[in-house]
Amino acid sequence: MTSISRIQNIKGTHDLLPGDTVKWQFVEKKIHKFLHLHGYAEIRTPAFEASDLFIRGIGDDTDVVSKEMFRWTDLGGNDLTLKPELTAPVVRAFIQHQLGRKSAVNRLYYLDSLFRRERPQKGRQRQFNQFGIEAFGSPHPEMDAEVISIAYNFYKEFVIKDLCLNINSIGSPDIRKPYLDTLKSALSSVTDELCKTCNYRLDKNALRIFDCKNPSCQKILDDQAPFISDFLAEDDQNQFYSVLSLLDSLGIPYTHDKKLVRGLDYYTHTTFEITSSALGSQDALCGGGRYNKLVEQLGGGSVPAIGFAAGMERLLIALENIDIENNPDIYLVLLGERVLQQGSKLAQLLRMDAGFSVVIETARRGMKAQMKEANRKKVKWALLLGENELDAGSVQIKDMASGKQENVPFEMIISYLKDNPG
Ligand code: AMP
Questions:
Q1: Both 373 and 269 in a single domain?
Q2: Ligand 1 in contact with 330 (CB < 6 A)?
Q3: Among 284, 318, 352, where does a domain finish?
Q4: Paired strand residues for 399
């Protein structure tokens, strides 16, 4: 006999099984509620976009664009990409639908899947999910403080251990060139001691050299590299210190990390990241910053903006030990073919008229197997309907926690359940 090979999910993707999805739904509900609380409205953009959006938005020399995009040409010759990040699509939609005309400040949030061809490991997948916010229209420090405090307070609500907010400013794009020239010349004598990736970055996208995890490269950078935040123009410096002082007044602790530059080209001014030791080596929960030029760069007007993106999988790893259940209220045990019609009617009534979550037996098993199922589903009550009950116009209601069982006439079932909430 030939065996049929089984198809598996693709490397770097994951199935979320029912035990996982209850946790995801719990977190997703919190996200919607928390962001609504702060006046943010949800935006949803398509799963794929023109590749050019990401090339122009994120930058050719970033890892995301140069190595990680799932990109293809469709049969019509269109160059398309599964979205590898969400800021560029949201900016595209903001411009396309002229959202800036409707309101001086637009506060948007998303909760979505994205795709990057990275090396999979714990907390790093090829399809993953992020929630995030983008606030368009205000260049002022209070906007930065609002966005950063939303991210920080969100994680604080979940009591995630060792939360650490790192913040920096990379100033306006005008200082980028003189700074990078100084950085390159400061490191020119030590390029042999830096790793291959650092040398590549120094050539292509020098700011990213600070993202290197290699301790010996980090030591060289600490000793020899100038930091961009020491090159800020006076206005940018004042802006940064105003953000810090607003965070102080909100009681939000932070560390000024002069090496925090973030990987994407569009960032300007404030950059930040929140980490937790609960995560292991991939310790970033979320990252964000200002991107005052991106709207213009993608063909919109001059609109300052700031946002963050937060990894859902990382949050769920940090919450690994929370115990969340979402069990049905009732298992409807049916015994005998004659009760099937009345059983279906009863289930519909309990759901639609009384709002109970009901699972009904459809496998026609014996009493023991059905009660086992009711136990496994951790329902509050098992309702037993057999032919004797049908003839008597009643059901047996068993409270699964106490084991108490009572015979209840059909017309009294809902009031009985409501009066005896278990
Ligand atoms: P980024 O869009 O790279 O700024 O990432 C923002 C957040 O998304 C990170 O702080 C992580 O929490 C999460 N993240 C980024 N890349 C991945 C990935 N490949 N798998 C899972 N989560 C990720």
A1: no
A2: no
A3: 318
A4: 381
First to last CA, the chain: 53
Cα(311) to centroid of ligand 1, in Å? 5
- State mean pLDDT over 164-187: 92
Residues 269 and 341 in one domain: no
Element containing residue 101 per DSSP (H, E): helix 99-102
For the chain, how many residues are written?
422
Alpha-carbon distance values, 192 to 197, 208, 219 (Å): 12, 18, 14
Q: Per the structure block, which two tokens stand in for 168?
A: 């920096």
Please give the DSSP secondary-structure letter assigned to residue 121.
Answer: B
CA-CA-CA-CA dihedral for 170, 173, 177, 179, to nearest 10: -20
- How would residue 279 be classed by pLDDT, with cut points 50, 70 and 90? confident
CA 96–ligand 1 middle distance (angstroms)? 26
Ligand 1 proximity of 309 Cβ (cutoff 6 Å): yes
Three-state DSSP at 12 gives coil
Tokens representing residue 56 in the block: 């122009």
168 assigned to some structural domain: yes
* Closest C-alpha to ligand 1, atom 12: 311
The token pair at 57 is 């938005």
Q: Is 421 exposed, middle or buried, given 0-12, 13-18 or 19+ CB atoms closer than 10 A?
A: exposed
Dihedral of alpha carbons 55, 56, 60, 63, sign? negative
The residue range of the domain holding 376 is 330-416
The per-residue pLDDT for range 83-111, each reduced to its tens digit, is 999 999 999 999 999 999 989 999 999 99
Long-range CB contact pairs, 346-351, < 8 A, 24+: 346/383, 346/385, 346/395, 346/410, 346/413, 349/414, 350/413, 350/414, 350/417
- State pTM to two decimals: 0.91
Among residues 196, 200, 188, the alpha carbon closest in space to that of 224 is found at 188
Question: Looking at residue 208, what is its pLDDT?
Answer: 84
The whole-number pLDDT of residue 10 equals 95
d(CA 157, CA 149): 12
| pLDDT at residue 313 is higher than 80 | yes
Q: Is 208 in the pocket of ligand 1 (CB under 6 A)?
A: no
List the CATH number of the domain containing 366.
3.40.50.800
